[in-house]
Amino acid sequence: MSNIPSRGGDLSRLRQLNSLSAIKALRGNGPVTLSALAELTGLSRPSTKEVVDELMELGWVEEVPPAPGTMGRPARRYRFRADGGHLVGIDIGAHNVRAALADLDGNVLAETRQAARPDAPLGERMATIERTVSGCLSLSGLTTADLWTVAVGTTGLVDTQGHIKLSAAIPAWNGLDLAASLQEMFPCDVLVENDSRLAALAESRRGVARGSRDVVFLHVGRRMGTGLIIDGKLHRGFGAAAGEIVMLPEAGWLTAPEELNDSGIVPAGMPPEDAAGYTLAAARNGDPIAREAVERYAEKLAIGTAAAVLLLDPEIVVLGGGFSRSADVLLPPLRARLEAVCLRIPELRGSTLGDECVVLGAIDYAIDHLDRQFFTADEPALRPPFPQEPVS
Amino acid sequence: MSNIPSRGGDLSRLRQLNSLSAIKALRGNGPVTLSALAELTGLSRPSTKEVVDELMELGWVEEVPPAPGTMGRPARRYRFRADGGHLVGIDIGAHNVRAALADLDGNVLAETRQAARPDAPLGERMATIERTVSGCLSLSGLTTADLWTVAVGTTGLVDTQGHIKLSAAIPAWNGLDLAASLQEMFPCDVLVENDSRLAALAESRRGVARGSRDVVFLHVGRRMGTGLIIDGKLHRGFGAAAGEIVMLPEAGWLTAPEELNDSGIVPAGMPPEDAAGYTLAAARNGDPIAREAVERYAEKLAIGTAAAVLLLDPEIVVLGGGFSRSADVLLPPLRARLEAVCLRIPELRGSTLGDECVVLGAIDYAIDHLDRQFFTADEPALRPPFPQEPVS
DNA sequence: CTTATTATTAAGGAGTCCATCATTAGTACA
DNA sequence: TGTACTAATGATGGACTCCTTAATAATAAG
């Protein structure tokens, strides 16, 4: 019954529903003929026509030239106007700020990255963010006025309101109302989330976990975190603190990276951010000491992972973050330990999205937000479309 | 967008939606006047009337005498015919088999319980089940033909198909296709689930966790288990193995009850099933040795609980199962340990449903099943109502 | 140039919902 | 007892959305 709206519907409601399913079909399938759309939505051709006409008038849909070379009268083709609005995803890490500009279909149009000092004061960091985003926008000749939503992923504990309760990696973040600060910068919806959770979302939408409804994402790198996709949705928890298994003392995740950093074979003078990678590479090449270090690391990793797998029984576990490049080295020992404990072993895969994981997740998060707004059940039939470009 | 059906709708679809929201309102609010129903569903009076007439014709709804003593013309009142079908919930434990008969609103009409030997052979156990249920039915003068759904909760690992993969407590269960066996006994839908999960469902629907969307239920007693309610729904996991945190070696849940059973103060000769209760009672009365045993128990309990809380950030954690009668003794040490580890402490409460927890959860599970069937999106507009009693 | 194929357009019909108004059944009070 | 008041009921007409069917238009193939 939960799928049934508690309030009954009007005739116009029916049209809204049909318009939305048409939009959904158009977004998912590229340019589409009217007949195909009718097939997809289950409506009759005349009704489909009427719906599409309305959507075109609103600016949501546009016509594209018919595909030549077919038998019979060529069918008119329509497509969703993904370029009618824009979304920005931002990944604010301790050492880097990344931004990506996307259209309403989530296609990335431009990307920028800028280094940052972890201990930079707040003003400097905000300026870095602003530069990164505006660089991204200028690549496509846009301004912040063209943005519909900005979604941000950052390290630390972000509450439901976008306050940062705690951030070990970025001192200036502690206690900041990041959502409010960014709101001053961008005149559109601003969403703030934990970076691991957004990475999980990206993997479940366009990464190795695509199609899986229950996903556990392990963010392994210099910092550790997890993100959970449950029943196809990002799980935030009541206080937006879900996925913080890193705090479980018995798993030892807080100190786990040290096993790789201080494995004893890392050459002196190597920058600390490369140490773990060195150990992992050595393990791949068969160095016995490195292998032992990896084993110890995997053992700790396995405890928290086993807790997540036993509790949630996900379809797939995705290994992401900085160390995911070494998934070939990490996954076998991790799998071995899970097999000893878990009742059903989920699929174990390394991330394929790499460093862009969080930005992409932020974009997907913004798209989810957009989708929720498409039809908010109470007031606006269809969200006002393109205020900046009046239709004839 | 996930809330929007991908297939567009018909006029009849709109009527279906409205019928369903009417049923939903009628089920939730007891006898209701037409005006009130119109208010609840958001439909106009004439439309509401038409919907209700249709539902009455189908047999879903009936009229009740108007409430006297009001100003103006007395309004006709309608109510959902909860007695039009019946559900049975069964709790198959190692030592007991419980059954409860409920109407379509989940009101319990009759209840039975029968002792069982844990190591009884399969035939004997199935006979016990049959007797328990038929006793329950005869109390209300019904037969299995009146049943719409039978939902069963039992100890052990139940897969998505209703096979029992593993059951330590009931040897005869191992490898059994319980759903198929029960299907021979009952000519209706049969659902099989893990008992802890059903208990969790009951707590979230009619227990202390009512209204919470994210719940962690701890089944503590001679056996341990957990059930998760996530986003208001029972979380089963991809292979229906969710909630088995008991298998995590680091938490020591498998051996945790021994701390209470072998606390050193239990009088010799006391039956093993009363030992833990004795220790808990002694701790409540201040016995220092018992308190230490409870502390050790709580410490183990806290590890697995912390894992669940950190991962899921639930609104509330419910302590259920046999030891929940001693929640006053168990919760304080558990809370103390969670506070040391968790970022946000959820509400901690003891169960109030007691021994009936699993049966009630089974009934709620059957109701969920019914609700899913009310409108299955493809074929049947409204599920055929009361085949056994033809309407004029 | 004709035929086959496919898409488009238009007209008629059915179902659902809403707003409005006269009618009805009860209570309250003189 | 009889009248005024109150609130629900029932019926009518209009508006909207969708469907089916049939006629029309545009292109490729022969």
List the main descriptive attributes of the protein structure presented here:
homodimer; Nucleotidyltransferase, domain 5; 3 domains; five-stranded mixed β-sheet; 15 strands; 40% helix; disordered C terminus
Q: Identify the CATH class of the largest domain in chain A.
A: Alpha Beta
| Helical content of chain A (DSSP H or I, runs of 4+) | 25-40%
Overall SS class of chain A: alpha/beta
Adjacency order of strands in the biggest sheet of chain A: 6-5-4-7-10
What is the terminal separation of chain A in angstroms? 43 Å
Number of domains of chain A: 3
Write the H/E string of chain A, N to C: HEHHEEEEEHEEEHEHEEEHHHEHEH
| Annotation field: number of helices of chain A | 11
Rg of chain A computed from alpha carbons, rounded to a whole number of angstroms: 23 Å
- Specify the biggest β-sheet of chain A: 5 strands, mixed
Describe this structure in words.
- The structure is a homodimer of 392-residue chains.
- Chain A has 392 residues and is of the alpha/beta class.
- Chain A folds into three domains: 11-80, Arc Repressor Mutant, subunit A (Orthogonal Bundle); 86-200 and 358-374, ATPase, nucleotide binding domain (Nucleotidyltransferase, domain 5, 2-Layer Sandwich); 209-352, Nucleotidyltransferase, domain 5.
- In chain A, 40% of the residues lie in helices and 19% in strands.
- Chain A has eleven helices and 15 strands.
- In chain A, the strands form four sheets. In chain A, strands 6-5-4-7-10 form a five-stranded mixed beta sheet, with helices on both faces.
- In chain A, α9 (288-312) packs across α10.
- Chain A is globular, with a radius of gyration of 23 Å.
- The two termini of chain A are 43 Å apart.
- The relative contact order of chain A is 0.12.
- Mean pLDDT of chain A is 90; it is low at 377-392.
- The interface between A and B is large, with 71 and 72 residues.
- Chain B binds a DNA duplex (30 and 30 nucleotides) through residues 9-12, 14-15, 18, 33-35, 43-47, 49-50, 66, 68-76.
